[in-house]
Amino acid sequence: MHSYDTAQLERYLAAHVAGFERLDGIEKFSDGQSNPTYRLTSGAGHFVLRAKPPGKLLKSAHAVDREFRVMQALADTPVPVPEVYHLSGDETPLGTQFMVMQMVEGRIFWDPALPDLDAEARTRIYDAMNATLAALHDVDPAAVGLADYGKPGNYFARQLTRWSGQYMQTAADALPDADWLMRWLGDHMVADDGAASIVHGDFRIDNMIFAPDREAVIALLDWELSTLGHPLADLAYQCMHWRLPHAGHFRGLGGVDRAALGLPGEDAYVADYCGRRGLAAPDHWTFYVVFSYFRLLAILQGVLRRGLDGNASNPKDTGRLRDVIARMAQDARQLAEKG
Q1: Which SUPFAM superfamilies match (predicted)?
Q2: Cys-Cys with 38: which of 49, 191, 311, 315 at CB 3.0–4.6 Å?
């Protein structure tokens, strides 16, 4: 949680954000483990402030400047993003860099099984997500000023190096299954096929806002892990989430009767995405999903480390992360061994 002087923050926002007059309220959104996010009230208006956490941070982590840049670049594309208003420097009334953006009103679904909707609405929700992902990957990065938003080529090899390093740097416990995954991914690395697009990096249902009156994505949020990379990374990452248990602290679809609920199976979802983009069915699908598991557990290991160091955005969840990380490593290893 940030500490700040309210009057100083109000003066800063009034000077830098068009339409902001006074700070009538600031409320931290309770969910999320990454960049602390706040709802600002100014008269009849509402804004969202998203900041780097306080304390020591990993290099390249919590990049609100990258989030600001990519959302600004996508503003005139078919990809739905909030309007962004201001990006601060590092010296701010909060003590860290932050951005201010539009408050988008709509629905956020925390449970991917969508228990409050009927089967037809669930089908449309998943189709809307599929269309949004395909639209993002169809954007030409150079055409929106993002040609330099990431390094070209060898995406999975570079990502494995990055997340292996971050995992080892933040490891709180010995985890043999995670060590095995690092070796397996290196031994089964896919060849670079030249595919490249803007990748979101955390594409899942609870990072989207849906229209209040229809099954349409009106805002795709949480872009801090976005870069230029292989589009199948986003697709496999979302499908990996559905393999997680639908119980406890997980928000997956494991064990859920998708057909009965009107939810697409993984093969059908992948086929719809490929159809929208004119692609053949992907080879090496197991590698992409296992990679997604390892990447997420490395991210969660960083969250655990911040919690142990007292810098977690949502410290109430820190204690359960050890079990979550160990379960993910075990499940990913079993998937890899099955092929």
Answers
A1: Protein kinase-like (PK-like) (SSF56112)
A2: 49
What band does 16 get if pLDDT is binned at 50, 70 and 90?
very high
The pLDDT assigned to 206 comes to 94
Amino acid at 257: D
Contact 53, 96 (CB under 8 A): yes
pLDDT, averaged across the chain: 91
What does residue 38 show for φ and ψ, rounded to 5 degrees?
-130, 145
Closest CA to 15 of 65, 80, 86, 66: 86
At residue 32, the pLDDT reads: 53
- Beta strands per DSSP E along 221-327: 227-229
Report yes or no: 326 and 334 within 8 Å, Cβ to Cβ: no
More confident call, 152 vs 57: 152
